[in-house]
Design a protein that fits this description.
The complex is a heterodimer of chains A (392) and B (372). Chain A is of the alpha/beta class. Helix content of chain A is 31%, strand content 31%. In chain A, strands 1, 2, 3, 4, 5, 6, 7, 8, 9 and 10 form a 10-stranded mixed β-sheet that branches. A 4-stranded mixed β-sheet of chain A has the order 11-12-13-14, with helices on both faces. Chain B contains 13 helices and 2 strands. In chain B, helix 1 crosses helix 6 and helix 2 packs across helix 7. The mean pLDDT of chain B is 89. The chains are: A alpha/beta (392), B mainly alpha (372). Chains A and B meet through helix 7 and helix 10 of A and helix 9 and helix 10 of B. Chain B: Pfam families: Spore_permease (PF03845).
Chain lengths: 392, 372
């Protein structure tokens, strides 16, 4: 009996002890970092890190009290350091709470850092640290700094959520701006057969009167990286080429001319690409087949869409549109000598022995490549109406 | 004597399965073979079966004795005792190594500020507790663990598939540098860990019902666990690519860390960590128990349980002292241990013992033939 009692007692005592307080952190002492901006201070030769945290609002005060009174809790602070980790520790001098990096949602790289310094090393901490994730989207602050981008405070949302939402929506709706995640960038930086592209974000004047600091952020283009440095931008429809070739298109929209000055819109709902790369007398031959499917979703001119010929003409025009996006994108990549589409990796997969001979000068070889693109677009519907309404 | 310990065939299978997965899942196998890693593991299965047939051959000759006992019968009293003692040291050292692996895993991934000693203490405390309950209890525990593994491990695979993490393109090109890297990755590292580590079962085979069951279940266990490892490795490569795999300390955690479904299902590391700790528990237990069996056999102890505490404390302390840091620990584990420890203990000595045993029986037979 006594033995049993001792056993049960020791059970409770050890249960209390084992639950433990090692590595514990109180929620009220923690600040969850949502976004990190990384800039390069040339004069000081240091990284400047901007942290945008979810600011914990004091109990009782509702943070969503209305527009004009500022957005729901965000707190911005900055620190400098020779490494990103050093800066993160330095930040403790300026911020009262323990930063927690496990919920970082976005990383923004300053223009200067991307252009003049190399991106090669800065992602190491994201891979090495066990708390921070490697699947965080990265953006480049186009023409500005990470600090500027993160300090733009929208009226209704948390700044980081606002940026994140834009990235996700734009990728889904339009396919021009893709979110490149840290681990993908690392893979592409370390691969000889591909270079990363990183989406750009710029700060523009806001027309929204409720915006607290009259500024807004806007996604713009995809940055072309070569050997760790930002060398150019793919803008507008050209940047769709990346999504088309990487099969990342979820939806996008093509405007095709239907008479002298009016356009018809086609929504692309599905697109699959097949790429073949092989070497032919020292030049890579790249053959691209794209199969796309879509519906007509807006018609601004009066044509007999029931006619097979008209339908076929639209299909043809849409195909040509897609083809020109891809061609323009590839041409720019070729002129920048940066294989952002990963054709080298495809050659590596398809013809390893040919890749071996060219892997060390792939970017030069790639710039001489011969590209043939075949697009097959099928229109599979015209939505809720067949013919447009007749107008006088 | 003590009552005879008996384990069922399903329990035996679970033991082999969890034991084989052990640290192989944790560190990722045959990283140097890049995309062909899964082929290397298939080779490993074949060679593992061949090695196991050697252990089975020894078991057939001495169905009731562990390795440390029949080594004395085969190689003579003194040499055999020496061999047995070397095996005790080998098993305890492997227990130490696996314990250290798991301590490091926990410190690196979650418990950043906890000391190795503390974590080792908890692990060994639970092992010692089960050990006092006896091996039969452990084999039943391993059966439970196996089902926990199934119910937690399989959903993780499904989640990974539904997160669209796997890119089959990562698996290509296979064998771009020919067969050499595959063979290099196979010998000695894939051969010895985990397939050669089945040598621990030479101590445990006497607990299995009869030789036939040991044979059937043993091969099944090796093949099933090997195929699972091969499949999981291919998945790992498809998810994170061969380059990241080589760079990362724990490829499986890197892989799981990328799972994100709808901003909602994410951070599955903790779940996988639970599985990894279970696997570690089984593996450390088996090595620890083999060392204990060896000691009690070599020194003819009446009460082998008395040796549990000293051995446990020794293992906890050596796990901290065995290497100054993680990188040295890994370096020793991948460069020195396979060649100087695994090869002799897993292949050379058992093969030699079997050869001597076969020659001896032949010799005896001819002598009896002559006398009649």
């Amino acid at each position: 009996m006594k033995r049993k009692f001792v056993f049960i007692l020791s059970f409770f005592i050890t249960a209390c002890l084992l639950a433990g307080c090692s590595n514990y952190r109180e929620l009220r002492d923690a600040a969850f970092i949502a976004g990190i901006g990384i800039d390069w201070l040339k004069e000081k030769q240091r990284y400047q890190i901007t942290f945008q945290a979810f600011s914990p609002s004091p109990a009782g005060s509702s943070s969503s009290s209305g527009s004009g009174s500022g957005p729901p809790g965000s707190a911005l602070f900055m620190a400098e350091g020779r490494t990103i980790s050093e800066a993160a520790r330095q930040a403790s001098k300026k911020f009262s709470r323990m930063p927690d990096y496990s919920h970082v949602r976005i990383v923004i790289i300053g223009d200067d850092l991307a252009k003049s310094e190399s991106l090669n090393f800065i992602f190491d901490v994201f891979e090495r640290d066990a708390n921070i994730r490697a699947n965080i989207p990265v953006l480049i602050a186009r023409g500005t700094s990470g600090k500027e981008v993160l300090s733009v405070i929208p009226a209704t949302e948390h700044p980081v959520e606002s940026i994140n939402g834009k990235v996700k929506n734009s990728a889904k709706m339009q396919g021009e701006n893709q979110a490149t995640e840290v681990y993908q960038i690392i893979n592409q930086l370390s691969s000889k057969g591909s270079e990363p592209t990183i989406g750009g974000i710029s700060v523009v004047a806001s027309k929204d009167p409720s915006s607290p600091n009259k500024k807004a952020t806007k996604l713009s283009g995809m940055g072309i990286i070569k050997e760790g440095k930002l060398v150019g931008w793919l803008d507008g429809t050209k940047s769709k080429s990346i999504s088309f070739l990487n099969n990342q298109i979820i939806q996008t929209n093509e405007s095709i001319r239907c008479d002298s000055h009016q356009y018809t819109s086609v929504r692309i709902t599905d697109s699959r690409s097949k790429i073949k790369v092989r070497m032919n007398s020292g030049r890579p031959e790249i053959v691209i087949h794209v199969n796309a499917l879509g519906v007509l979703d807006e018609m601004l001119c009066n044509r007999k869409i029931m006619d097979y010929d008209v339908l076929h003409e639209y299909e043809q025009k849409t195909s040509n549109n897609i083809l020109s996006h891809i061609r323009d994108g590839i041409n720019q990549a070729k002129s920048q000598k940066s294989d952002i589409f990963g054709f080298g990796d495809i050659l590596h997969r398809q013809h390893p022995e040919q890749w071996k001979k060219n892997e060390n000068r792939w970017n030069d070889v790639f710039s001489k490549s011969k590209v043939s693109i075949h697009v097959n677009f099928n229109l599979h519907g015209t939505s809720m109406r067949i013919e447009p309404y007749p107008y006088k | 004597m003590k009552k005879k310990i008996r384990i069922g065939s399903l329990q035996f299978f679970c033991l082999i399965f969890l034991f084989e997965l052990g640290s192989a899942v944790l560190f990722g196998m045959a990283k140097e073979a890049r995309q062909a890693a899964w082929i290397t593991i298939i080779f490993g299965i074949v060679s593992g079966c061949i090695l196991f047939s050697v252990y089975l051959g020894l078991h057939k000759k001495y169905p009731d004795l562990p390795l440390t006992a029949y080594s004395r019968k085969i190689a003579g009293k003194y040499i055999g005792w020496g061999i047995g003692f070397a095996y005790v040291i080998y098993f305890s050292y492997l227990a130490v190594r696996v314990l250290r692996d798991y301590e490091e895993l926990l410190v690196i991934s979650q418990y950043h500020n906890t000391s190795l000693l503390t974590l080792g203490l908890y692990m060994i405390a639970s092992i010692i507790y089960v050990m006092f309950k006896g091996f039969e209890v452990f084999s039943r525990v391993s059966q439970v663990c196996f089902f926990v593994f199934l119910f937690v491990g399989m959903p993780v695979i499904i989640l990974e598939l539904s997160a669209q993490l796997l890119q089959p393109a990562n698996l290509l090109p296979v064998l771009e540098n020919g067969w050499m890297p595959v063979l290099k990755a196979f010998f000695p590292s894939t051969l010895t860990v985990p397939f050669g580590e089945m040598v621990a079962f030479t101590m445990l085979l006497p607990y299995v019902k009869d030789h036939k069951t040991a044979k059937k279940i043993g091969y099944a266990g090796i093949i099933v666990s090997g195929l699972y490892l091969s499949f999981r490795t291919a998945m790992n490569i498809a998810a994170i690519g061969p380059d990241v795999r080589i760079r990362s300390t724990f490829p499986i955690l890197t892989e799981i860390g990328l799972v994100e479904i709808g901003n909602f299902i994410q951070r599955l590391d903790a779940i996988v960590l639970v599985i990894l700790v279970i696997l570690g528990f089984v593996k450390i237990f088996i090595f620890f128990y083999c060392a204990l069996l060896g000691i009690s056999d070599l020194f003819n102890l009446n009460e082998p349980k008395k040796m549990i505490y000293p051995l446990g404390i020794l293992i906890i302390l050596s796990a901290v002292l065995v290497a100054p840091n993680f990188n040295t620990h890994m370096d020793i584990g991948f460069k020195i241990v396979p060649i100087y420890m695994h090869l002799p203990f897993q292949i050379a000595i058992p093969v030699l013992l079997l050869l001597i045993a076969i020659i001896k029986t032949k010799f005896k037979k001819s002598r009896t033939n002559q006398s009649t």
